[in-house]
Write a structure and sequence with these properties.
Layout: E1 29-37, E2 47-51, E3 57-62, E4 68-73, E5 76-83, E6 90-96, E7 101-109, E8 121-125, E9 131-138, E10 142-148, E11 151-157, E12 165-171, E13 175-176, H1 180-187, E14 199-209, E15 214-223, E16 226-241, E17 245-256, E18 275-289
């Protein structure tokens, strides 16, 4: 998807015969490249910033699924900054001439060793500096934001990272959306049924590095008496010393209510559901290394 025909009359000096997807603007030129890791693998989602000689950012985008980026800019000298989670940022100089396409080629990002994996050991989740939040759609229009206010958990980081393990226990009755009537309904048998299922329980069975500071954590969530596979997409934020050695991460996933037999539903006249079936979950976690 990155290469296509260019505008007639424009020059394509640095592409080796390949032609750019974006048309070269009448008053400027085109700048492009690709971002890869040290093993030569594409880095999708890398953040690209292009700065002019006065350090003003004139272009900003993320690389596509194949690690490519492109920007149309005015003629001049530029500095390209490439950044991706878990990698050291990279700066590259480039000149763009009128009517030309400067393909800077491959930009290689090397790992930031401070954002690889935490020190092996057992980390207790600090509930005072962690959060479990969710977002649900209401009548296919607005979003309803909520959280669980009481939970506990532990993350064990093994010497062999893939053997690491996480476990989280959540008090179902602690659901909070800042509306008491809605919270009472969520605690009822229509949804969480906290009288019969007082806890939500997540336990992992596999950790995997997904590149940079991203982890994929495969596990199982028991909710409403049903257990279903759930994968967390986690971003490791590093370690800090503050009232103990701490590691931080943010993890996201999506839950489908029907997987846990939480099937209560009302429809509006045109068949629009009152509550969407997909729930977005975000876990913002600080773990304290146990001595």
């Amino acid at each position: 998807m990155f290469w296509s025909k260019r505008r007639r009359g424009g020059r394509d000096r640095a592409t080796g015969g390949r032609q750019a997807l974006m048309p070269i603007p009448l008053t400027g030129g085109l700048l492009s490249g690709e971002v890869r890791d040290a093993d030569g693998r594409p880095l999708p989602g890398a953040e690209i910033s292009v700065f002019d000689r006065s350090s003003k950012r004139v272009a900003h985008s993320d690389t596509d699924a194949y690690g490519f980026f492109a920007a149309a800019v005015q003629p001049g000298d530029y500095r390209i900054r490439a950044e991706a989670g878990g990698y050291q940022s990279l700066h590259e100089r480039a000149n763009v001439e009128w009517g030309s396409h400067n393909a800077v080629g491959q930009l290689t990002l090397v790992p930031d060793e401070t954002l690889t994996t935490p020190t092996p050991g057992v980390y207790e989740i600090d509930p005072d500096h962690s959060a479990i939040r969710f977002v649900a759609r209401h009548i296919a229009m607005s979003r309803v934001y909520g959280q669980f206010q009481q939970f506990s958990g532990q993350i064990r980081i093994a010497e062999d990272f893939e053997e690491s393990h996480a476990e989280v226990l959540i008090d179902a009755a602690s659901v909070f959306t800042n509306t008491e009537k809605r919270d009472e309904h969520l605690r009822s048998a229509d949804f969480l049924d906290v009288a019969n299922f007082p806890k939500l329980h997540y336990t992992s069975h596999r950790f995997a590095r997904a590149g940079g500071n991203r982890w994929l954590v495969d596990g199982e969530l028991t909710l409403h008496g049903m257990t279903s596979d759930v994968q967390l997409d986690a971003t490791y934020l590093g370690m800090q010393e503050w009232n103990g050695m701490r590691a931080g991460c943010i993890a996201t996933t999506q839950l489908h209510r029907e997987h846990f037999t939480v099937n209560w539903q009302q429809m509006l006249a045109r068949g629009v559901p009152v509550v969407g079936s997909t729930i977005e979950i975000t876990l913002d976690v600080q773990g304290i290394l146990q001595q």
